[in-house]
């Protein structure tokens, strides 16, 4: 039962951090960087031909996901640190 509760809370926390990065942090970064949306940043490796689609390296979305991971990791670190302190 504890594991199920942890999974549900983890999924909810993940959606909150996604919203934090997408709706708050990325617009603030856009404000600082002349309205550049981080999640839409990409490098075109190969232009689209007559019968092919372009090859795009979407590094902005990757950076947003890394930021999500860092926020979740930091919060989990703080929670585990607090639980270990309370256990002593």
CATH class: Mainly Alpha
Strand order of the largest sheet: 1-2
**Total count of domains:** 1
Helix content range: 55-70%
**Largest sheet: number of strands, sense, barrel closure:** 2 strands, antiparallel
Radius of gyration: 18 Å
Oligomer classification = single chain
Q: Do you know the CATH architecture?
A: Orthogonal Bundle
Characterize the overall form: elongated
Low-confidence stretches: none
Query: Average pLDDT value?
Result: 82
Structural class category:
mainly alpha
At CATH level 3, the topology is Non-ribosomal Peptide Synthetase Peptidyl Carrier Protein, Chain A
Number of strands: 2
Question: What do we call the CATH homologous superfamily?
Answer: Large-conductance mechanosensitive channel, MscL, domain 1
**Topology order in helix (H) and strand (E) letters:** HEEH
Q: Total number of helical segments? A: 2
- The percentage of residues in β strands lies in 5-15%
The CA-CA distance between the termini, in Å, is 24 Å
Descriptive account of the structure:
With 88 residues, this protein is mostly helical. It is 68% helix and 8% strand. A hairpin with an 8-residue loop joins strand 1 and strand 2. The mean pLDDT is 82.
